[in-house]
Amino acid sequence: MELVAVDIGGTHARFVNANIAADGAITLGEPATLHTKDHASIQSAWAAFARMSGGTLPRAASFAMAGPVGGEVVRFTNNPWTLRPAQIRETLGIEAFTLVNDFGAVAHAVARAAPGDFAHLCGPQVALPPRGTISVLGPGTGLGVAHLWRDGAGYVHVQATEGGHIDFAPLDRTDDAILARLRQRHGRVSAERVVCGPGIVDIYETLAVLAGRPSEPADDLTLWDRGTSGADTLAAAAVERFCLALGGVAGDIALAQGASGVVIAGGLGLRLRDTLAASGFATRFRAKGRFESLMAAIPVKLITHPQPGLFGAAAAFSAEHAA
Fold first, then answer.
1. All domains of the chain in start order, with CATH
2. Which of 106, 134, 187, 296 sits most deeply, having the most CB atoms within 10 A of its CB?
3. What pLDDT, in 10s, does the model give residues 287-304?
4. Concatenated DSSP letters for 287-299?
């Protein structure tokens, strides 16, 4: 089976031609990354990818999308595109398709990925358990959250969620200050407001106020570069604070989902691979009061597959259409 796998986030839409072999093995071609702001609709981006692929695309597709996928109209959380499932076949010229939440797709990728596609972050240095719930989350333009459950005998159930929109839970005075700053703008402050790529700007500017220092205006990409390189001590402190917040949210999600393993994903998660391991992420992940010993027993991994969203979209298609 040949298909187009698509991973659409707030900033980028990634396309790839994929193949699902008779034994279920998935191979991906060379991905193409398009900026969502450069295209008025998914139809426009689809046509652009078709031109890049020589004008002809497979008659099947799987779409991993940043937002809920139910209903007559699918609206993306962090970009203005919409999609009407009832019209997909006609508008894109395909015969079979799958729609899956973007982090639902990542959870499918976690279920199918090889052991070598994971790096250890904290907890016991053991493989992810073959049975039970695995929580999957990751920061990007927003904060994606999903989980998968497997029975140890080959059955896997993936559940997408909107867990990134739980309330942000401050743990110290610096967190309180970040919350207060964001509350002035948004009223209710979700975890996603802090634990996402653009969230570094508010963290940085809050730290500047607390330190009595002027904050040099900068966008999030610049701050990530300056913070992870160590070129700017205040930006580096903001990156560390981000890692603390991510650890706290990951621990909350694991508690809520009854996880026996946790996987951090997303392009930003991969970029922070070495930083996370050296940060206070693990301490905040465990800092759950009476349940600290339970949290310390959970293995936490980082998925290092280069395209988990695309791989997972293809895996979701395989799971839906295998029968």
1. 2-113+305-321 (3.30.420.40), 163-303 (3.40.367.20)
2. 106
3. 999 999 999 999 999 999
4. --GGGHHHHHTS-
